[in-house]
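Input.
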Amino acid sequence: MYTHVHSDVNSKAKSKLKLEPCKGFAQKENFSTKITKILKPQTRITTYLKRNSSLLSPVLYSRPHRTQFQFSSPRRNPQFGELGFGPIDAPPSLGFPMAELEEERMGDFKPFSEGSSCSRSISETVNGSHEFTIKGYSLAKGMGAGKYIMSDTFSVGGYDWAIYFYPDGKNPDDNSTYVSVFIALASDGTDVRALFKLTLVDQSEKGNDKVHSHFDRPLDSGPYTLKYRGSMGYKRFFRRALLESSEYLKDDCLLMHCTVGVVKTRFEGSKQGVIVPQSGMGQDFKDLLESEVGCDIVFKVKSESFKAHKLILAARSPVFRAQFFGLVGDPSLEEVVVEDIEPFIFKAMLLFIYSDKLPNIYEVMDSMPMCSPTVMVQHLLAAADLYNLDRLKLLCESKLCDEISTDNVATTLALAEQHHCPQLKAICLKFIANPANLGAVMQSEAFVHLKDSCPSMLMELLETFASVDDNSSQTLSRKRSGSSIYGQDLADGGAAESVNPNGRRIRRRT
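Output.
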């Protein structure tokens, strides 16, 4: 349909392609129309190339073995109609598979970036201190090497620690010349990294404390790593003869101060995300109850009426489900009379059913409360038990535990017994069995009523007394015998030479 004339593209990259009409075709009236129809699917591409021709190289490469041609600014040829490139019998798109950008235009384009982020790791110590007083130092001497006096355990960084003081030294090799002081990990832990500071306090208040600290000096290998019952310290902490003649010992008493710093690592990053609010379903259902939209049941509670939705009540309470949709239930029921429940208690129960939260007393009473919050919760617990609302029942139990006192514990105990609340009952019994509370509780009218109405409670109370007494005796026995047992383990090598059984060796201090 047309001929082409071109020069060697490899030698003359900017030669112009000249289109010459073929004889016999230019004179046909519908020639322009045919070309337009052929190029119509590519009209958008052609228009875009015309408008943005400056972005294209003077050379367009076709596929291999096809015509290679060039063009300058697009222009309209009156004999050909809309401008097209490439042989007429080839698909128009095959003429432009690749275009090179001019070098001078490359500066206008920037590489695509997917963004950047950053994060950091922060290692720091969680510090805690413990003061250990040793009274009767002279009586502690002569225990023998490897025997120690143990402080009470104290918690730092989520782990339990203890101070061990050896009046006659930790090892027999020292011949009781030095006292030894160690700090040990007293709870289960894997590779707990920590720093320590031991201070023997100058009791003359002159400030001449003897301090061994790892906080303020560089450590070649970092913090110490300990496992369960691993320890670190000083076999030769202080020469015993000097200690006994110094101002560190006053009134046969030593005062030690220990600081432990547990290494914790946390991460901070620039992670971004979408903030998702907490669920508002409970509030939405509560609003639905208060608006009374779609209500299909009315409860008559004494002089007040409450509207609700059968489906919601049935979904939350097995009792309501059986009443409305059970074998003997009536789905067409429109009104229910409720007895033995105060209106504000029933309202509180409805608020929980819809919102799944324990309501406040001021939400359910329009005027000043007629009873205390504790009394309201007690009645609400009874209603929860009646309608099988287990979560409401547990919420009431938890609230009553928080509010327990010598004035209401007897009433709460009777309630727990009546409505099968074993956890609440056990807490009440332990509260009464406490010698500090027993006298005041027994003088209350509620306890007298409980004793008369439920004599079996007295037997359970006596059993609680016995169990509390036994536990106290066992705890005291463990405290008395724990030092010698734990001390023997340490002396036998559990933490000897201030070496963690599975950790690294700690340098010997003198």
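Residues 2-107 form one domain.
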